[in-house]
Amino acid sequence: MKRMSSSNLVQRLMAVGLFLLLLLIAVAVGLFVFDQVRQFIAASDMLPTFTIEEQGGEDAGEVSYDIGQPLPRWEGTDRVNILLMGIDQRENEQGPWRTDTMLVLTLDPVMLTGGMLSIPRDLWVPIPGFDDGRINTAHYLGDAYDYPGGGPALAVKTVRYNLGVPIDYYARVNFTAFEQLVDLIGGVDIYVEEEIDDPTYPDKGYGYDPLHIPAGWQHFDGEMALKYARTRHTLGGDFDRAKRQQQVLMAIFKKVTELDMLPQLAAQAPEIWRTLQGSVATDLTLDQIIALAQLASEVSPDNIRYGVIDENYTQFWETPDGQQVLIPLRDRIRELRDYIFSNEPVAGAPAAQQTASADPAARLAEENATIEVLNGTMTEGLAGRTAERLEAEGLQVAFTGNADSFEYDETLIIEYTGKTYTAEYIARFLDLPLTAVVHGANPNAEYDIAIILGSDYTPPPE
Q1: From 305's CA, which of 45, 285, 320, 350 has a CA 20 to 30 Å away?
Q2: Which CATH superfamily is domain 6-357 in?
Q3: CA-CA distances (angstroms) from residue 298 to 92, 110, 112, 304, 379?
């Protein structure tokens, strides 16, 4: 079995994302000839309504259907943005719930361009009507405090406020439905880049369900696919998790679009929708979903733009009450936003996004950071030994010495000139938490990065 390249993954993300939305709301229903779907709807009170026949509101003009036409057409000309949310809904709980996953899908029906933007759940932002908080709490607050429209409405408003883009629709799904749907298609094949050991993966209550996944090709059922997509126990934390989620989406897309799966899925349509009842909420109607999915299939891979608000667009920060969060670097995020959501031709991805897929050595060489290593402990020679380790890793240590005090309890990695990737690479290399990286914002500093070693740093044995 051949491994799919990361470039192919990126090119198909938009179609995957919109098809996943179709999968979660209708799945096999959308694989019927549309006349058959309409007959099925007429005999059932379970499935979602149709815009054309049922609503007749201002959105009705966005979708048209002609008798004999295989699928409805999307007639709207404005860009469509959809907030896709996954919630951490535990069995037998009534909520409210935080969002575990947030993605904005976008499609321009005139230019036939599309994109996807992944939003980290720890992004620390203003939440309209509430105090600043993690963006994943907006949905929780909306439900808990009876915000008009509930959690989805406040989540939509929070994303719109902080990104500066309109959100036209939302879809929310819990993870139980995800597991069941993956099982219905017979599981998925995933290539695991590196071995994963997560001793603290949460179980369905409030305990732990230790997770071990070997590297290499794996066949996952619904439970394991969800665990693989949700674990944070790798060096990249949430950023690695976002990549794995995208990988799972593509695996689902590949599986359900295999020709020999279509008759099986069509026959299971009623069962699939019964599975989804109570697990999915959306303000999209069935014909809108099918029309958008059909439109997305017409977008050339060359016209798909993809982005993740990752370490290039955020900085780590600890709140006064000890929460470890991500502070948005808004100028950089604005650049990424304009790249994904603009109709104007763009020569290439933002600089930070272009380097996102490059290998670590290339990214370190591009930043070419100069580093000083200072000993903030009573351990003699610690700065010199650490400098040797960094140099052996190919990093450029320009100075070693003692800090202004020998009483540093925690190591600091101070990044002065915007070379965040190198600073975070050093933290991982020295087995330090990413919260050790702080941003000094001094472009005139003598060195790009200063490392002050504290008593929490334990060098490897010589």
Answers
A1: 285
A2: LCP protein (3.40.630.190)
A3: 41, 11, 7, 11, 63
**Which tokens hold the place of 92?**
């037998």
Residue with tokens 């992944």: 118
Dihedral (C-alpha) 84, 88, 91, 97: value to the nearest 10 degrees? -90
Q: Which residues on adjacent β-strands are paired with residue 190? A: 218
3-class SS at 188? strand
Out of 3.50.50.60, 3.30.70.2390, 3.40.47.10, 2.60.40.2140, select the CATH number for domain 360-453.
Answer: 3.30.70.2390
Residue in 181, 332, 147 with CA at minimum distance from that of residue 251: 181
Q: 23-59 b/e with 16+ CB inside 10 Å = b? A: bbbbbbbbbbebeebbebbeeeeebbebbbeeeeeeb
Question: What pLDDT digit, counting tens, does each position of 223-268 carry?
Answer: 899 889 888 777 777 777 777 876 787 677 667 655 456 456 555 6
Token pair 């976002």 in the structure block, residue: 242
Q: Where are the domains of the chain?
A: 6-357, 360-453
DSSP secondary structure, 31-86, as one string: GS-HHHHHHHHHT-SSSPPPIIIII-SGGGGGEE--TT-SS-EE---S-EEEEEEE
Phi, psi of 450 (to 5 degrees): -115, 130
pLDDT category of residue 220 using cuts at 50, 70 and 90 = very high
283 against 302, higher pLDDT: 283
